[in-house]
Design goal:
Order of helices and strands of chain A: HHHHHHHHHHHHH
Helix content of chain C: 25-40%
Largest interface: A-B, 72 and 83 residues
Shape of chain C: globular
CATH superfamily of the domain at 308-528 in chain C: Dipeptide-binding Protein, Domain 3
Helix content of chain A: 55-70%
Strand content of chain C: 15-25%
CATH architecture of the domain at 308-528 in chain C: Roll
Distance between the termini of chain A: 29 Å
Radius of gyration of chain A: 23 Å
Strand order of the largest sheet of chain C: 12-16-11-15-13-14
Largest sheet of chain A: none
Oligomer: heterotrimer
CATH class of the domain at 308-528 in chain C: Alpha Beta
Number of strands of chain C: 18
Radius of gyration of chain C: 27 Å
Shape of chain A: globular
Structural class of chain C: alpha+beta
Distance between the termini of chain C: 65 Å
Number of helices of chain A: 13
Number of strands of chain A: 0
Structural class of chain A: mainly alpha
Number of helices of chain C: 18
Chain lengths: 373, 306, 559
């Protein structure tokens, strides 16, 4: 399978693997968010040590597909106090975001200039910002924006990346070559350029419209405080990672016995992919997605630095982090501690949950990889 | 080996062409141009500027002319926003600065991150493990434009040990490199830990242990080399990123580097500089990938390139 | 244990070390100038030469004919001299020219060049240098953004429109020291125009000989009190005193401009506090996030100085929109804002709340004639106009280019207008390049409501405001607001042709009063820059136009 003219190695592709580049390269602001996931490490591991062609592999005879990774994972998770803690934090954040209107003490746009830039007090638990708006309220509403950006972006990434990666991995041949080369080119392409272009062009296009599809998109964009372009562009630059990951997984799984037997029993390609391959690929994807969520929030902060962030006056953690980035030295540390703390907490929770999921899926994954029942 | 290297370099050509075409297309689709200023520029001046720089020619002609210039004269064009300079000069001046800081950051990241990960994995589930992973999480979640000013505050202003910006002496490189290294360090620590954990539970490691070998020896002789392979992968990605500079670090520390210049060229629509730096980045990625692949050969005897 | 075979190992190590060494050794950063030898904070003051360390931003160009940004103009005005300069009261004084005469009809200016004025390479400055420079700058081939500065000169506009050859420009060198300029029609502001950098002299042999790169330190030739010693791009610019300059010898012998990123206010402040620069400059000021701390600091607060500039920030209203046709609505919007609160509490910038648009120093301005801030009166006006408490008034959009200050300004305005007038404002922030393009286009014309803009004087003459930007004929190429007042146009055009100062003043005064009554746009504040200056740096006095501090007046006490 050295169709790329590269090294002839024992594995389907070099150990570095087309599937293991989790992060995008050559994009400046996104170097923050390049959470090269632990999932890829595992994938790389498997490729090098226990992958196809390695004498150590033994197929598990006749399995239709390894049973219930999800059930096993959930059992594992429940046992870990740390994982539950992480899940708890995420749940609280999501609830706060969802019920912001009920929970927040003030309105996020209510200004009181006389009280601008004050530290924590009885009336304002986390202090006020430059316009005298309550920081706690803005953080809660900011959770809404930041978390929804992160989650929606991840979903779109998966929607594009999974099919592409699966197709490349499963069909191989020229499909794989084409997709892999396209991925290579896009990989070298600077993310920032793409993001600026997508965001500004989309905003320009939507600004003009009132009716039809574009009009509907414009309303959606307005509802999202101008973030539609950011979702799309983030998804556009990040799906490559998932595609590679999925491709790697599919490559290593497609010669498994259960796939052979499914094929032998006359299942169509589609059925094989959907019923057998995707569920086995999903754990890695779920983990990658979990670990990728905080990345998006950071990217949003980074984009605000350049001038392409969320539209004011909507609060977002990223914009608040940017606004407060030098506040500590200026004597107003609360302007940065709040949003940075919220972000760190989210990252922590996501990482705990992601790691726990990895460990939970792992025994099953390792079993599937090495073909032992 | 030579044939392999040549092949790897030749593959760059279609990649360059694809990146060039993509950049060209995207650039011309984006609204906004290089001549607009807060003080409105008269329409005639605008037209004359477009004429002077050939922006009034049909797009296909601009596409081909630029390509021809690059291949025949290595001429990447003049800068639209720096009128006495051309792109090659700008890149030659700025890239080494970014690369220096990037390499320093990588040394730090690898030198501190990998051992941290090893220690974590060797003492799985201990306090040290949890603590170091906590640190790693923070390294990943606090952006450089927050860390940078804080480091400046502490080391440059309060303690006056280091300068707050610029790149004149070796001292000037420290804070930017440290700031830049935090994220890669955290990532490498996590990756090393995960990889080593994976390896430590593999069969052949258990075999070694059952032979009665001390744990440290087990790790050093058997586990580490294999565990490092995916870490090298991730390290390669990070290396390519830091070599082309971080816009944030270079802005916060007022460093004249290619990272900052790239973003400026996008926001000021300085097309030749944008193109030149984009192609540079493509090359850096490809060369780093090559370096990483060679490192695999170094680490793993099964890999041979022919 | 596996070890790679020796050849592989050593080959690998060789390559790695070559790359590392190559990168580390390339373009050695240590420069020859004193800054490079500094350990953090501590500075070694050169004993014999007074040296000043200033902040700067990489100039896009140092070519006087092409310069349009303050960073460029700053350095250029230190290194080059023009025919005249405007003093603090906007009176022209001879610099490159020792005297001049104006013909009775106001069409011909004859300049006698100063004896002994030379270029930095020793050659005398001749009238041909001026004539050639002007023809070269107006030429379409040069594509100068300020080519329209030559429009008042005979044939200038025709040349800009590419109907005539640049050689036809109404300027010629009668002899080496006499420059004769012929205008299209009398223009009182011509001497002010002659003080701008676009009309500085140039050396034909240097510019043609070196092409686009003539401004590099190795080739540039200048005629001012300072010369370019070093230009390390994006890092620093060093100017040294021109010892063969004809004028009085300035105290500062060496000026080092450390170059910061654009909008690098925080970095400049950090460098100032670390003792690496002597002032935070006249362009950026003190970042909002640090202002309170600095004003509370016993030492730093003593070092704060405020400089006025000839510029105003305002909201441009789109007069094509039906809801802005009523002057009461426009006035209500302006009167509802609290500018002092905006400046002091929200954006934390220095600035003078603007009643009228024209800033101090512009003839004819009548700030008293403009409506005062008055929330109650504003509400009444809205009600009178048919929108009591904002009912029935459409949602309007306030557009601005993205920046921290603009964002706060916009959010404050949005809230304020909602509270006081009950009108709903939607905010739209755009990336700068997109914004600048958008406001000239049909989208703004058809659907835009308000955008934030500013104007800074090119020269302190009323023409630069009343005619250059507010005359309805120039409007499409400037703010594209479609405000038209025939009476106003008549007044300012008359004033343009007027040579008598008293009559001119009267006409412009009437024009300003008319503008105050018609209130086409909403003035916000006049530009001021609040900056830190070390106590040992004396004579740091930025002018109003251009907003740069001439090195000539500075001196540095021992410290």
């Amino acid at each position: 399978m050295a169709e790329n003219g590269e090294a002839l190695t024992p594995s389907p592709s070099p150990l570095r693997g087309r599937g293991e580049h989790h992060g995008r390269v050559a994009g400046l602001p996104l170097s923050h968010g390049r959470d090269v996931g632990v999932a890829d490490v595992r994938a790389a591991q498997r490729r090098g040590l226990g992958g196809e062609g390695h004498p150590g592999v033994r197929a598990s005879g006749g399995e239709a597909s390894p049973a219930g990774p999800w059930q096993m994972a959930w059992r594992q998770l429940r046992r870990s106090k740390l994982a539950l803690f992480g899940l708890g934090i995420l749940a609280v954040l999501l609830l706060l975001a969802a019920f912001a209107d009920l929970v927040a003490p003030y309105s996020p746009t209510q200004q009181n200039v006389a009280l601008a830039r004050r530290g924590p007090s009885a009336a304002h638990l986390l202090g006020t910002d430059e316009l005298g708006r309550d920081m706690l309220t803005r953080l809660i509403y900011g959770a809404r924006v930041s978390l929804s950006v992160a989650i929606v972006a991840q979903i779109v990434i998966l929607l594009i990346g999974v099919p592409v990666g699966a197709a490349a991995g499963y069909f191989g041949g020229w499909v794989d070559t084409l997709l892999s080369r396209a991925i290579d080119v896009l990989y070298s392409f600077p993310d920032l350029l793409l993001i600026i272009i997508v965001v500004t062009s989309l905003r320009a296009a939507l600004r003009a419209e009132s009716g039809g599809v574009l009009g509907a998109l414009a309303s959606l964009d307005a509802a999202l405080a101008g973030m539609l372009g950011i979702f799309l562009s983030l998804a556009l630059v990040s799906w490559l990672t998932v595609a590679r990951l999925v491709r790697g997984q599919v490559l290593s799984l497609k010669e498994r016995e259960f796939v052979e037997s499914a094929r032998a029993s006359g299942a169509t390609t589609g059925r094989i992919v959907v019923r057998h391959l995707v569920p086995n690929v999903l754990p890695a994807i779920v983990v990658a997605a979990t670990l990728g969520i905080p990345r998006v929030i950071l990217v949003e902060a980074a984009l605000s630095f350049i001038g392409i962030g969320v539209q004011p006056p909507t609060p977002s953690w990223g914009a608040m982090i940017l606004a407060g980035s030098t506040a500590a030295r200026g004597g107003n540390p609360h302007l940065i501690l709040g949003p940075a703390g919220a972000l760190a907490l989210t990252v922590l929770a996501c990482n705990i949950v992601g790691d726990a999921l990895l460990e939970a899926f792992d025994p099953w994954m390792r079993r599937a990889g090495q073909g032992r029942a | 080996m030579t044939r392999y290297l040549v092949r790897r370099v030749l593959i760059l050509l279609p990649v360059w062409l694809a990146v060039y075409t993509l950049t060209f297309t995207l650039y011309h689709v984006t609204p906004g141009g290089p001549w607009d200023r807060e003080k409105p520029v008269p329409p005639q001046a605008m037209a004359q500027l477009n004429q002077k720089y050939g922006l009034d020619r049909p797009l296909w002609q601009q596409y081909l002319d630029y390509l021809a210039g690059v291949f025949t004269r290595f001429d990447f064009g003049p800068s639209y926003s720096r009128q006495s300079r051309n792109v090659s000069e700008i890149i030659t001046d700025l890239f080494p600065v970014s690369a220096r800081i990037g390499m320093l950051a990588m040394f730090l990241a690898v030198g501190l991150g990998v051992p941290l990960g090893v220690v974590s994995a060797s003492n799985h589930h201990s306090i040290a493990d949890r603590a170091s992973m906590l640190i790693a999480v923070f390294g990943v979640s606090v952006p450089s434009f927050v860390v940078g000013p804080i480091l400046i505050w502490i080391f440059a202003l309060s303690l006056a040990w280091l300068p707050p910006g610029g790149i004149d002496t070796w001292r000037h490189h420290l804070l930017p490199a440290i700031t830049l290294s935090l994220f890669p360090m955290a990532l490498l620590a996590r990756a090393t830990r995960a990889s080593l954990l994976e390896v430590l539970s593999a069969d052949y490691v258990r075999t070694a242990r059952s032979k009665g070998l001390r744990e440290a020896l087990v790790i050093r002789r058997h586990a580490l080399r294999n565990a490092l392979i995916p870490v090298v992968t991730i390290g390669g990605i990070l290396l390519a990123e830091v070599l082309v500079g971080s816009f944030y670090v270079e802005t916060v520390f007022a460093i004249p580097g290619i990272g900052r210049y790239f973003v400026t060229s996008v926001t000021s629509r300085d097309y030749p500089v944008l193109m030149g730096i984009t192609l540079l980045m493509t090359t850096v990625v490809a060369l780093v990938n090559l370096f990483v692949d060679l490192t695999y050969a170094y680490l793993d005897p099964r890999i041979r390139y022919g | 244990m596996y070890r790679a075979p020796a050849p592989v190992r050593s080959g690998y190590l060789l390559v790695v070390s070559m790359v590392v060494v190559g990168l580390l050794a390339s373009s050695a950063p240590v420069s020859a100038s004193p800054t490079g030898l500094a350990s953090a904070g501590a500075r070694v003051q050169q004993t014999s030469v007074q040296e000043v360390r200033l902040p700067g931003i990489e100039p896009p160009t140092l070519d006087p004919g092409l310069a349009q940004d303050i960073p460029s103009i700053d350095i250029i005005t230190q290194m080059f001299d023009g025919l005249v300069a405007l003093d603090g009261s906007a009176n022209p004084t001879g610099v490159g020219a020792s005297s001049w005469t104006i013909s009775a009809d106001g069409l011909t200016y004859t300049f006698t060049l100063r004896q002994g004025a030379t270029w930095s390479d020793g050659k005398p400055v001749t009238a041909q240098d001026y004539a050639w420079a002007w023809k070269r700058n107006v030429s379409p081939v040069t594509a100068s953004p300020y080519a329209n500065a030559f429009a008042p000169i005979k044939n200038g506009q025709a040349i800009i429109d590419e109907k005539l050859d640049p050689e036809q420009l109404g300027v010629q060198a009668a002899d080496d020291r006499t420059l004769v300029v012929t205008l299209e029609r009398p223009a009182s502001f011509f001497l002010a125009l002659a003080s701008t950098v676009t009309l500085y002299p140039l050396r034909q042999d240097v510019v043609e000989g070196y092409g686009d790169r003539w401004t590099e330190a190795a080739s540039i030739v200048t005629n001012g009190p300072y010369r370019l010693k070093e230009w390390q791009h994006d890092t620093r610019i060093v100017l040294e005193r021109n010892e063969s300059y004809w004028g009085p010898k300035p105290s500062i012998g060496l000026a080092t401009y450390t170059l910061f990123p654009e909008d690098g206010v925080e970095q400049m402040l950090a460098a100032y506090e670390a003792g690496e620069i002597d002032t935070t400059g006249s362009a950026s000021g003190i970042p909002a996030s640090q202002l309170d701390r600095i004003m509370a600091d016993p030492v730093l607060s003593q070092q704060v100085k405020t400089f006025k500039q000839s510029g105003t920030y305002f909201f441009i209203l789109n007069h094509r929109r039906p809801h802005f046709q009523d002057v009461r609505v426009r006035k209500a919007i302006g009167m509802a804002l609290n500018r002092r609160e905006l400046l002091d509490d929200v954006i934390k910038q220095a600035g003078e709340p603007a009643a009228g648009i024209q800033p101090e120093g512009i003839l004819g301005r009548q700030p008293a004639a403009w409506p005062k801030e008055d929330a109650a009166a504003a509400q009444q006006l809205m009600a009178d106009a048919g929108y009591p408490n904002g009912t029935g008034f459409p949602e309007i959009t306030l557009t601005f280019s993205t920046s921290a200050t603009n964002r706060l300004l916009a959010e404050y305005t949005q809230q304020r207008l909602k509270e006081i007038l009950g009108i709903t404002v939607r905010l739209e922030s755009m990336e700068s390049a997109v914004f600048l393009r958008w406001r000239r286009g049909t989208e703004w014309e058809q659907r835009g409501d308000i955008y934030r803009a500013s104007w800074f004087s090119d020269y302190e003459d009323p023409e630069n405001w009343y005619n250059h930007i507010w005359d309805s004929e120039s409007d499409p190429g400037v703010y594209n607001a479609a405000w038209q007042n025939a009476q106003f146009d008549g007044l300012v055009r008359q004033a343009l042709a007027e040579t008598d100062l008293a009559r001119r003043t009267a006409l412009y005064t009437q024009a300003d009063q008319l503008m105050a009554q018609d209130y086409p746009h909403v003035p916000l504040y006049h530009e001021e820059v609040r900056s830190l200056v070390k106590p040992y740096l004396k004579g740091y006095v930025p002018g109003r136009v251009p907003a740069v501090a001439p090195l000539r007046t500075m001196s540095v006490d021992p410290h």
